[in-house]
Amino acid sequence: MIDDLKNIKLNKTFWNGLFITLMVFLVWWGYNFIRGPKIEEGYSFQVKFDDILSLTKGNDVIYSGLTIGEVKEVGKIGGASSSEITPIVTLSIKKEYEDILYKDAVFTIKSPLFVGDYWVEVSRGIPRSQDKIVKGEVLEGVAELNPSKLPAEIQKGLKPILINFESFSTGLVSLFNPATIEDLKQSITNIRESTLKAKTLTDKFDIEGEGIKLDMAVFNETMENLSKVSSELKISLDNIENASKNFKKASEDIKNISGKLNNGEGSLGKLINDPSLYDSIGSVVNNIGVLIKKLSDDPTLIRPSIWK
Cα separation of 228 and 235, whole Å? Predict the structure, then answer.
């Protein structure tokens, strides 16, 4: 009887221990399943991105189809006092792939088409570098456009346009108040009436077979010639005005000279106004007249004495 009780206690202790062991194993297995496969520690470095999309810890790092590491940590640079915050991702690379990453590597956050996990895609860039990425280095990365965020990107770009359109429409509504609309209607009516009058005038000059048809080319040429003539006429009028001014000045000068001559001013004026000059000229003219008369009466007066 005593041996049976001991066996029962032993069996109970055994089963309790086995249950606890199984529970620990299940917890450990569940943790590793959620965490994913453990990456063999190699080295880590950081990559800055403008947008990490939905990248999280544990996402894969893939190079040419090979899973070479995982996202070890997702953090940020900057805080409340900083002007901007930059996301930064720490990548842990497997030891066996340490020698394949160079400083020309391009790190791109890739997104699934619709559902699935994000990952970091690594590729070689141009120009090629011979320097390898070292532990603790900080590099720059890029993020592709996520199709699921495409509507948000469109809305982001469309928002300024909508704001500007709203401002424009508001200004347009305030501009076209009832008084302005009435003025606009009146202006349109005036334009319509002017157009009808112009058409009526054109119709009057467009009579076939009557010799009154207006050639618009000739009309335009005539208007151009008229413009040129008006310009030349203006120049001619300016010249006439200048000539009249000069003529007026010349007339004033002649008048002044004539006045001075009449007043005996200057040598010529004194000479002209000297009475003895006129007396001398009169005497000379009289003497010439007497001489001509004598020669006419007796031509022998001009013959030499040898001929007499």
Answer: 11
Give me Rg for the CA atoms of the chain: 60
Neighbouring CB atoms inside 10 A of 257's CB total 14
Provide the pLDDT confidence category of residue 92 given band limits of 50, 70 and 90.
very high
Task: Count how many domains the chain has.
Answer: 1
pTM value? 0.38
The pLDDT tens digits for 59-86 are 999 999 999 999 999 998 876 676 778 8
Q: Within a domain: residue 123?
A: yes
Of 69, 67, 62, nearest to 44 (Cα)?
A: 69
Strand locations in 257-306 (E): none
> How far apart (Å, rounded) are the C-alpha atoms in residues 66 and 121?
10
User: Would you say residue 99 lies in a domain?
Assistant: yes
Boundaries of domain holding 86? 43-144
Which residues, 6 or more positions from 136, have their beta carbon under 8 angstroms from its beta carbon? 44, 45, 46
Whether 25 is covered by a domain: the verdict is no
Distance from C-alpha of 281 to C-alpha of 120, rounded to nearest angstrom: 131
Whether residue 253 is contained in a domain is answered as: no
Q: Hey, what's the torsion of the CAs at 236, 239, 241, 244, to 10 degrees?
A: -120
What is the helix, strand, coil percentage profile of the chain, to 5?
A: 60, 15, 25
Per-residue pLDDT tens for 8-57? 555 777 677 777 888 888 887 777 667 655 545 678 999 999 888 889 99
**Do the beta carbons of residue 266 and residue 260 sit within 8 Å?**
yes
pLDDT band at 184 (very low <50, low <70, confident <90, very high): low
